[in-house]
Design a protein that fits this description.
Strand content: under 5%
Number of helices: 5
Largest sheet: none
Number of strands: 0
Radius of gyration: 21 Å
């Protein structure tokens, strides 16, 4: 499976293989996911406090032509941080054998393959 497929696959909580163990993400996946969770929290707080933030930024003079560069740098930095954390999480997932097995099984289910033996062999690996 190519690397870019691991960037947006769902989170795995438990592999149902008969054991009671929960899925333990690797270091890269864990820190990438924590970074994305923190950024999502900041986005939600900013979204709901946007009337106050816009008023504050307007009074400070950030909505003039001279401050566009500052806002662009801030937005670019946040975008790069999101891209970096997505890549960290995807790399961590691609190196984890349990997650690779889950992603292959999910991909086979999405394709809707009629071959039941192939799907079962993916689950048993």
């Amino acid at each position: 499976m190519p690397f870019h497929k691991y960037l947006f696959t769902p989170r795995l909580f438990k592999e149902y293989d008969g054991t009671k163990d929960v899925y333990e993400p690797g270091t890269l996946e864990k820190y990438g996911d924590q970074l994305l969770t923190a950024l999502n929290l900041m986005w939600s707080l900013g979204y709901y406090t946007s009337p106050l933030l816009i008023t504050f930024l307007y009074r400070r003079g950030y909505f003039v032509a001279d401050s566009v560069g500052t806002l662009a740098k801030f937005g670019t930095g946040i975008g790069l941080l999101v891209a970096f954390s997505l890549c960290m999480r995807g790399l961590g997932r691609s190196m984890n054998v349990v997650y690779v097995r889950f992603a292959e099984c999910l991909e086979n289910a999405k394709r809707g393959s009629q071959d039941q033996d192939a799907a079962k062999s993916t689950i048993r690996r």
